[in-house]
Amino acid sequence: MANLWRLWKILFVFTRYRLDSLVPTEQLPLSLRIALWLAPWRLNPVPSRLNRGERLRLALEALGPIFIKFGQILSTRPDLIPDDIVKELKRLQDDVPPFASDKAMALIEDQLGQKISDLFAEFSAEPLASASIAQVHAARLFASGKDRSNDDGSGREVVVKVVRPGIEHTIERDLQLLETMARLLVKYSEDGRRLKPLEVVDDYRHTIYGELNLQIEASNATQLKRNFANSKLLYMPEVIWEYTRSKVMVSERIYGIPVADIDALQAQNTNMKLLAERGVEIFFTQVFRDSFFHADMHPGNIFVSRNNPQAPQYIAIDCGIVGSLTEEDQNYLAMNLLAFFNQDYHQVAQLHIDSGWVPATTKVHEFSAAIRSVCEPIFDKPLAEISFGQVLIQLFSTARRFNMEVQPQLVLLQKTLLNIEGLGRQLYPQLDLWSTAKPYLERWMRERFGPKAAFKELKRQLPGWIEKAPQIPGLVHGALSRLNHMDENQQALQKEIAALRQELAAQKAQKRQQALATLAIGSGLFTWWQAFALGLPEVVGLSLAGAGMLLLIVRA
């Protein structure tokens, strides 16, 4: 019932803001176009005071955190979404209506166990920013610990992030609805199993609940800060662990320029080309060097340092969603991307089969031909005009014919890559993602599989091998003993099977004899009864019955 009520609310919001008018009906089948035209919500007029971008933004805000996240992703794709809609969706990144400050302060005091006045020298009740999951308040720590009497106004400036009260219930309700829809998709859609919607929803559940726990976000931020220590590419604000709990996180305040504020970046003469390229380099460094990447890199979470505009440095916040890949996924992904860059479609097809992303029975030449038919027209354009997002969309559409399965572990990566490309194109429309990424991937492959990497792995494994060397003779002897024991057990098992077969054969013969004896007795009695019915002498009947029984026994 809860799911039905939530679905009803979604339909109500859909009709209230007449989102059906945003659907490109000319691309739909005629029957569906007629159904949409006759739908009862068309009696509701399109709100004339709101443009289509405002209607979509307000609808997503009304539906809650999961839908707001979806809008944030769309806001980074001006190459896919019209400009007027992108402009409105950008407001979802840090301009979601805040919740009451007294509730935020009460939650902070409850989590940290003290009053606001005892925790901070200054605290701004007006939030700096408000997002779908939490909102942020500015504050200042006491100059010396928590002793207000010794405060001289030089305490560290911080931001206090607090989770929206009751948000868990809203998210769980939406996740249950998504899970129900996923089950229906698996049950009734031909593509349901291939798309793995249940696995995707489960993965998203894990991700979103990780984002609700600010201690997890704080640990993610600390790990990213460690990975990029002293880096010229990325700076991560320091977490103040003493003031961090599951619903509250306090961290260093930064004063960068929002990455979406193109005018401010250009006003300080920022090298926009280098800024866009460094964003791509940061992404590939996180994915391939660290296997630990910030997976929520929409513009509201990214700033640019005001220092050294000619060598700009990124500042990232909000690390609630991070992703990681196994070594196998890293290798296959890197080799796939390089094969794309080199237009080696046969290699792309073979890698998909080897990795299990498509069934092992897929014919390589057919799959590679299909990939070529999609990619060749795209590669006729200058590299700077090629959208990697468009390539992925068309490739997945083509691979659908070959039963390509969705890989839940790559969903976050795909989303982040699309965000990075969209952000890079906003900063520098001529961004050549391909030529920026290719040298990095080639260098990573050399480092991963070259002689230096092999020697490094040998050095890493050698102490363990040396430690286990004295045990090797005993391990070999034990393995051989187990093999001999297995042979003996196998021989004993074979004897038992042979004896069992003999016993079964004897039981079959015995049952056959019993059946024949029963048949003989029955036929004898029947012959005797027939002779008696015909009025023959009793001795004749008995003789015929005995002869029949004897004949059956002899034939057996």
Give a quick account of the main beta sheet: strands, pairing sense, barrel closure. 5 strands, antiparallel
Unreliable runs: none
Oligomeric state of the chains in view: single chain
Radius of gyration: 36 Å
| Residue share in helix | 55-70%
What value does the average pLDDT take? 76
Task: Label the overall shape.
Answer: globular
Count the E strands: 11
Helix/strand/pairing class, anyone?
Answer: alpha+beta
Distance between the termini: 71 Å
Total number of helices: 22
Number of domains: 4
Proportion in β-strands = 5-15%
Give a verbal description of the structure.
- This is Probable protein kinase UbiB.
- It is found in: Cell membrane.
- InterPro entries: ABC1_dom, Kinase-like_dom_sf, UbiB, UbiB_bact, UbiB_kinase.
- One of its GO terms (molecular function) is protein kinase activity.
- It comes from Thalassolituus pacificus.
- This protein is of the alpha+beta class and about 550 residues long.
- It has 4 domains: about 1-90, no CATH class; about 100-265, no CATH class; about 270-450, no CATH class; about 470-555.
- The chain is about 60% helix and about 5% strand.
- The chain contains 22 helices and 11 strands.
- The strands form 3 sheets. Strands 1, 2, 3, 4 and 6 form a 5-stranded antiparallel β-sheet that branches.
- The longest helix is centred in the last third of the chain and has 62 residues, at about 470-535.
- The protein is globular and about 100 Å long.
- The model has no long low-confidence stretch (mean pLDDT about 75).
